[in-house]
Amino acid sequence: MKKTSDKVFNMKKGLSETCNRFFTVLGNPTRLATLETLLDGPKNVTQIAETLGQEQSMISHNLRPLVECRFVYVERRGKERVYSVNHGTVDPLLKVVENHAVNYCPSGGRCLAREG
Q1: What is the pLDDT of residue 9?
Q2: CB within 8 A of 94, min separation 6: which ones?
Q3: Degrees to nearest 5, angle at CA 72 with 69 and 77
Q4: Which residues is 44 bridged to in the sheet?
Q5: 3 state SS of 54
Q6: Contact 87, 39 (CB under 8 A)
Q7: What number of CA atoms fall less than 13 Å from residue 3's CA on the CB side?
Q8: DSSP secondary-structure letter at 44?
Q9: In Å, what is the CA distance from 101 to each residue of 55, 104, 111?
Q10: Strand partners, 80
Q11: Cβ–Cβ < 8 Å for 50, 40
Q12: Which of 49, 65, 83, 110 is 20 to 30 Å from 58 at the Cα level?
């Protein structure tokens, strides 16, 4: 029989792995730009690539983990695949980031932006 402390450790370990995957997926600038682009509405990969000025293959490569982790949904419309944001996850997440930047960053979030 497992001890209670073993259960807590296992839950924390599982959460750590989940958090790592979550933030790894979101830690990529192309993926974040893709999410931001999709906040304006659903788009196919060509539209996303044109908006971001990136190669279509790069966008497709970066959409895969966003779809796997359900930050983005994909729907088939004829021959094309149309991508849209999972607003249930992404909107609250962006509010947390904004709240942190406004209320806790001494520079109002500017410290989060790259220098130079």
Answers
A1: 47
A2: none
A3: 125
A4: 82
A5: coil
A6: no
A7: 3
A8: E
A9: 32, 6, 9
A10: 77
A11: no
A12: 110
65 Cβ contact list (under 8 Å, min separation 6): 25, 31
Q: Which residues pair with 81 in a beta bridge?
A: 76
Write the pLDDT tens digit of every residue in 59-96.
999 999 999 999 999 999 999 999 999 999 999 999 99
pLDDT for 15 equals 81
Ordered by where they begin, the domains of the chain are 4-85 (1.10.10.10), 86-116 (no CATH)
How is residue 88 written in tokens?
A: 């249930």
CB 56 within 8 A of CB 50: no
CA distance 2 to 57: 48
Average pLDDT over the chain reads: 87
